[in-house]
Automatic annotation (TrEMBL):
It comes from Candidatus Entotheonella gemina. This is Uncharacterized protein.
Length: 400
């Protein structure tokens, strides 16, 4: 038998991406495929499938970060061991058509009851499920895509509910949105016969790559043989516990990693950054606002940073301004012109810059605000109210 490395094909001259073909598809290959007995492998002293994975992990000139296996349906004698025995992460791809419900439901149930050959502290682990819903029709009608999304989320929610009684009591619940990703139909992907170099073509698959990257250990996570009783006092002495979310950590800037997603968020043609709860939007805000490599103007901020930027209005502040609009003969249009300019002035001033004072008619309420020992939300509201009461304030706003 040839060494495994002689069967491997490198797919890219740029990236470290390799493929291990299943064989040469000819008549003899089809005949030999019929003779395979995967169930018999588990009765042998040396399981050939386990030996293959060990060879990929230990007997190559390099050490793969990840081994991706196509288990197809996952419910055939040949593909089931790949999914239920060897996988750490099972990405279940389906389209939310009623015809797919029964089969996918059975597959998910089987995964929840599976125990892979990998174990931790003597306990065999269950493959972690993730769900890829694709291809979602590339319809311009939002209600079409929304219908398929909601149906898929409902299915996954029902499947996850079946697993709750098997999890530890102190384990946090799994939200469907955390383990499901949607990819719309892309003709360039469907018709391609090679690895595409255009990043835009596979940008929608980046969340899947993030799922996989979480299983790649860093050097600091690699275990070494040590005596725990000997090192326990040293570990406890060096431990430093931080409270709160990531963006509130004292070592935030030393730990923050500038990823490609972060770079895209800074692009000048991206006026708005959207993301699900817990995806790091507040951390990105702090990185931009407090980083010394950006000139940032803070107009609005998350509630947790409002003490740091006292000119930022809360919901009560906006409500107080709205009650004054009738008497001021002004509205939201004039408010945002004045408020944005005022926030820019105070933001620059907070970073030891010295912005020039505005037109004389706007200067008095501004001087009254900055002369206070500390800027408060009430003071900002009073300043805005005085400015908005000035005649022709819409024309004067550009002078602030």
């Amino acid at each position: 038998m040839l060494p495994i490395v002689q069967h491997i094909i490198r797919l890219s001259e740029v990236d470290e991406l390799y493929c291990l073909p299943a064989g040469i598809p000819n008549a003899d290959y089809a005949r030999r495929l019929r003779l395979l007995d995967p169930e018999g492998w588990y009765r042998e002293e040396l399981n050939p499938l386990h030996a293959l994975l060990e060879g990929l992990s230990e007997k190559l000139p390099f050490r793969p970060d990840l081994v991706l296996m196509d288990a197809r349906t996952g419910i055939t004698p040949l593909s089931a061991p790949l999914l239920f025995d060897l996988s750490d992460l099972a990405i279940i791809t389906f389209f939310p058509h009623p015809q797919a419900l029964t089969g996918t439901h059975a597959l998910v149930q089987a995964i929840f009851h599976a125990h892979s050959w990998r174990n931790r502290d003597g306990q065999r682990l269950t493959p972690e499920p993730r769900f890829l819903v694709s291809p979602i029709p590339a319809s311009r009608a939002p209600e079409v895509q929304q219908r398929y999304r909601l149906r898929a989320i409902e299915w996954v929610s029902n499947w996850l509910a079946l697993m709750e009684n098997r999890r530890q009591q102190d384990a946090s619940s799994i939200e469907p949105e955390e383990v499901i990703h949607f990819v719309s139909y892309q003709e360039s992907i469907a018709t391609s016969d090679r690895i595409l170099t255009d990043k835009e073509a596979w940008r929608s698959y980046e969340p899947i790559a993030e799922w996989l990257e979480r299983f790649i250990p860093t050097k600091s996570e690699e275990r070494v043989p040590i005596s725990l009783p000997e090192v326990k006092p040293l570990i406890l002495k060096d431990l430093e516990f931080s409270a709160g979310t990531a963006e509130q950590q004292t070592d935030f800037f030393s730990m923050f990693v500038n990823t490609e997603v972060f770079s895209r968020a800074l692009a000048r043609d991206k006026p708005l950054v959207l993301g699900r709860k817990g995806t790091g939007k507040t951390a990105v805000f702090r990185r931009i606002a407090e980083g010394d490599d950006y000139n940032s103007i803070i107009v609005l901020s998350p509630a947790s940073f409002r003490d740091q930027y006292p000119w930022v209005l809360s919901a009560e502040g906006f409500q107080a301004m709205e009650t004054h609009f009738g008497a001021l003969q002004a509205g939201w249009r004039e408010f945002w012109m004045i408020y944005t300019s005022l926030a820019a002035f105070l933001s620059l001033r907070s970073t030891a810059q010295n912005p020039s004072l505005p037109d004389e008619r706007l200067r008095l309420p501004l001087e009254q605000l900055i002369s206070q020992s500390s800027i408060t939300e009430l003071g900002v509201v009073d300043c805005l109210r005085h400015m908005l009461s000035i005649p022709q304030i819409g024309l004067l706003a550009g002078c602030l």
